[in-house]
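Sample 3 of the quickstart, ligand SN-glycerol-3-phosphate:
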Amino acid sequence: MKSGLKIELPVIVLNEKAYVESAGNKGLKLAKICAEVAVEQGVSIAICPQQVDLAKIASSVDIPCFAQHVDAVEPGSQTGFVTLESVKEAGAIGSLVNHSEHRLKVADIDFIITKAASLNLLTIVCTNNIAVSTAVAELKPYAVAVEPPELIGTGRSVSKVDPAIVEDTVKEVKRVDGNSVVLCGAGVTNGEDVSAALELGADGVLLASGVVKAKDPRAVLMDLASGLR
Ligand code: G3P
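Result:
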């Protein structure tokens, strides 16, 4: 990894995505629940608010906030793009990069990882398989988050349905960069899914729908947190 900044591991990273259930004040409420559960349970939880709510949420909760996406552009005459400088100014400590719902070119991923490190921001780069995870590790991001796209939003956890992709990603990424953090995601919904991920060597999980669309997000987060211990 290139950046010196760190977050406490193991970690649950909640991506609020662009769900109706996480827009505006609903997203802020979810972030506050994450912060409360983190303190109550003594666990590490980070949040990726909807982009337009990033500054509001980052200034309202005391847990690490990540942007969901940044563009590989310099600040200046750019319309509708999100720069690393602007997410830092908004209070984020880093960004997701190359989420399977927001893929980037390799050169752009490299640009973002390098620039983020120079700004002391963390990059969590999403990947879809072992080969891509290994290639991304060569770029020295803070973390690689492997997420098989076909399991996203299904409630069928990667750590249970496809343990090999988690185990092999951990092995290959750590072989390239022993300091790299490895997360896994897709379908993670309960504490057992989290503990299975940790047993496979992951440093945490990246998840969305299991919490964002839950009737009782606090109860789900409490259960997820139990899997970190
Ligand atoms: O970014 C997390 C994500 O893609 C996994 O989504 O809904 O399967 O937890 P979900």
